[in-house]
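pinned: reference chain
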Amino acid sequence: MPKEETARVIFSFANSNTFTIPPIRETLLKFIVEGLWLDPFANNMNIKEDLPDEVNYVTNDLNPKFNTTYNEPQEIFLARHVGKNVMGIVVDPPYSISKTKRLYDSIGIIPDGWKGHDLYHTARKYARMIRPLYYIQLGWNSNGPGKKLFQKIDHLLVPHGSSRNDTIMTVWKLKKP
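pinned: its structure tokens
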């Protein structure tokens, strides 16, 4: 009989800067310990100052008001890293159409087809091409990069109270070839 998956459940107050939520930040710091890591939707989620020197954390956000390494569409950002030895990808896009509009309409950018599931789909596609050792996803669902290539190794559910959606964080590890 297969082992039943269980999620850790840790209550924490909501914050639009997801990486400042304590159980999420702690989990990120547990896995991001060395190598090249990509964050295609960095926003102002600055976690770099808490990472070890062995980590090259490369950030991207379409909105140029955020202090990121790149300001380009995620497809271009992720494509530039195909063929590189990537330790992990952290995927934390805007979870809703209204959040996307707040972040990008104000600067005159209206991304085509930007719905939460489209953002995850593109990130999953590139995860299968880049094949990082780890794929960390945050959002309102736990769909990952695909069970053929990756195995879920951590599942965190962060409830924020009755009037807020929970945040789900999953960590996936590349299966041995």
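why pinned: Strands lie at 8-9, 35-39, 55-59, 86-91, 134-139, 150-158, 167-174. The first strand starts at residue 8 and ends at 9.
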